[in-house]
Amino acid sequence: MQQKKSMTGNRHIRTALQVLSWMAGIACIVYAVSFLVKRSYDIMKKNTETGYIAKPEPVVTDGKMTPEIMLSLGKVSDPQVSPDGTLILYNVSYTCIEENRSCSNIYLCRTDGSQKQQLSARAESISNARWCDGGRKIMYLQKGQIWLAELKLTKKGWSMRNEEQISDIPAGVSEFSLSPDETRIMYTSRVKSNVQKPADIYSDLGKADAIATDDLMYRHWDHWVLEIPHTFVAGINLKSAKPKNIRPDNSTDILAGEKEPYELPAEPFGGIEQLSWSPDSRTIAYSCKKLAGKAYAFSTDSDIYLYDVESGSTVRIVSGGGYDTNPVWSPDGSRLCWISMERDGYEADKQRLMVAEIGWKTSGGSSGARMPAMENVRDLTEGFRYNASSPVWSPASDGIYFNALAEGLQGLFMAGVTGEGGITRLTGEDLWYDFSSPFHIEASGKDTTLLASYCSMDFPTELVAISVSGDRTTLTPVTHENDAILGQLKKTVTEARHIRTVDGKDMLTWVIYPPEFDENKVYPSILICLGGPQSTLSQGWSYRWNYRLMASQGYVVVLPNRRGTTAFGQEWTEQISGDYCGLNIQDYISAAKELKAEKYIGKMAACGASYGGYSVYYLCGVHGDLFDAFVAHAGIFNEEHMYLTTEEMWFPNWDNGGLHEYEADLDGRHTGPAGDGETFGGIRQGGSPWSTAEAAKRHYANSPHKLVTNWHTPLLVTHGGMDFRVPVDQGMAAFNAAQMLSLIHISEPTRPE
Asked: Any signal peptide, and if so, which residues (predicted)?
């Protein structure tokens, strides 16, 4: 904690301590996880013999949500409907605070939520559970290998029988997907990258701990890139599956023969959704960025490929532009859809929903290989303001369901593929939830029922049935995993405010009021500075920054969707690029001023992570006396150093001022960062500290570290040592600067009992 040196004397120290007393709640939230691992709490029940983490049954006597209560909630994920459409297989994860770990097990219920039961009770997580053999068996991952089990219905309910490990992959399996005809399986594992250890060069240096590389992308997000993901295909016979029969020697690497060890799926967050089996099981569509080193670091140009399983041949069918991801075959196999960005190098470009007809022809020559022919490529979201995500085909192959962040809510939409097409919003703006794309669709005439997951700022993810009939939408909860705990808590209230910005625009700002809010009382408040910077404050639930938890500690929580957020059209999103120090900072100030004018708001802190940390550091130097405390987690402090130490270079190169490089050429395409081969080894770096672009020069001239002499407000800095996106020295530099400027150090806040 910091206080400016000029505030000397006991009176000023007492004032600082008073400010810090109410900041302790904020610090408790930020430090919650590190505190929680130090002691055991009665709210967690654990079988000490097996290590199984049971569902906790805490008793909340005061109605107050705490970090312990939050971590006792079950995390529902990965729902899968049985082949006959009657049952849902899904995972629930619970946390043991004492052991600082969580464990996921398999659950089963009917599609209406009835007859719920727990299928597994393991000490080590089970994940990726999938139906097979007509619903008589399931496959799943445990201990990094694929397992197969029979499902038996007894008088006591469903049970897993004759469990067998059917893979033996030394590097482990991350995810898998069974082909529609159930004769093949594709799975992801790890292979060696181009980054070397000393022993890779000199065999007698096996104990040397170092990294050797001569290119970029040697670390990514939170790990050194010694290995990368690849996807493999192997044959399988579910009727007579042999133990450990899926092995490296009978598996085929989809990327075999490539010159570089490209990633499939893409790091750091890509998964099996980047690959899709065709309905006839003969072809795999996949997304891949076939670039390495500097080219990989500066480009977002991933393409769509078709892999022929029999011949092993690959054909690229979509190329150029930015990200092309998430290919999905239509159920009848006649079409392919995917998510696409137009501009290379811009990770926040509009996400378009593309579709094309896929035909086949036989190539000449002795091989007679099938060759794809793609026709009628079109953007189904051309007139749609928002970003399409996670497409799911209708059973009749005539429409595509997807989710999109729209005006502060993640809603469900349907795009018609045939006829006049068009986009229909299925969940209205009055439904304050974030919905995922459906995992099951049943259509009967004009009535459709979607099974999906949803959440809000009030509750974590649960499964829900969404019935759509004409213009009427009805929600019916399917799972109630956390009702017993949440029902004991006092409720917070969320308000949607529209705040006027300095340039006369309306900004959606969520405001969460503490339980039993009384406008005649005075409350401390927290203004959240969003990371990204291109992301959105919607109705999502988070275990990292949980706004209900903050409000339950007695704070009014203010969540401005400032410039750069992604749910209000592309113009609102793109304004922030090249203007970090500009309008979005003024948006925060506008929100803070409006809320502080309310009689029930007392002191206010600004808190944020990543780009939100940048915002906190910048506000520290320009806010005057608007804020009373600051919390920065993993924040950008020195922009010049950030450019030289982060890993995904396309992001700062664009956002820091390199936008001028992306003007369309004569063919209407965007040149992107590959450049003309004349500057910096062919990689354009218009957003670099040495750029001559005016936007870049302005950006670096306004780096937060240049404002530290204006700092005079208590500041808490936290930063993770394995953060390679915003490296830890950014946080250390901010802390050190505050110390060297002789800001008074206030002792660490104590944890409330």
From this structure: none
